[in-house]
Amino acid sequence: MDFRTALLLLTSIAYFLLSLYVFSKGKEKTLNQTLSLLALAIAAWNFGQAMGEIEETKMRVLFWTRFNVGAVVMVPAFYLHFIMSLIDPRGKRKTVIRVAYLASLVLVILVMTPLFIKDVAPIFGFKFYPQPGIA
Q1: What pLDDT is stored for residue 85 in this prediction?
Q2: Half-sphere exposure in the Cβ direction for 36 (13 Å, CA)
Q3: Is 69 exposed, middle or buried (0-12, 13-18, 19+ CB in 10 A)?
Q4: Alpha helices, H only, 1-127
Q5: Measuring CA to CA, which residue among 100, 65, 70, 107 is closest to residue 85?
Q6: What is the mean pLDDT of residues 50-56?
Q7: How many whole angstroms separate alpha carbon 107 and alpha carbon 85?
Q8: Mean pLDDT over residues 11-32, rounded?
Q9: What is the number of other CB atoms lying within 10 angstroms of the CB of residue 15?
Q10: pLDDT tier for residue 48 given thresholds of 50, 70 and 90
């Protein structure tokens, strides 16, 4: 395993542990849950990237590429929800948060299809690099 992959795995573990820690400190329930989900999405993103580096077969790399991109498209919605929980603790802007989650959900569904990531192929010095679909 190379240094970059080891760092991705270490970062993934650190964010996962952070997610568990923040979730366990549930004084500000919504605030802690959203920060925990944000950390979990970042952990999944790093883990998927690391697994894509470790895997040898094209199909497995494609799976992990879609997995990590699926995790990363959730980050903006979780971040927005976290920030909204800080600046609007009464939840007056729930519609904005719902729209963000809906948009992220649509993107996650698209990511898992060839419409978003068509394939992985050697390019830019990488053994496998994502090839975009039409979406």
Answers
A1: 87
A2: 16
A3: buried
A4: 3-24, 29-54, 58-72, 75-87, 94-111
A5: 100
A6: 92
A7: 23
A8: 88
A9: 20
A10: very high
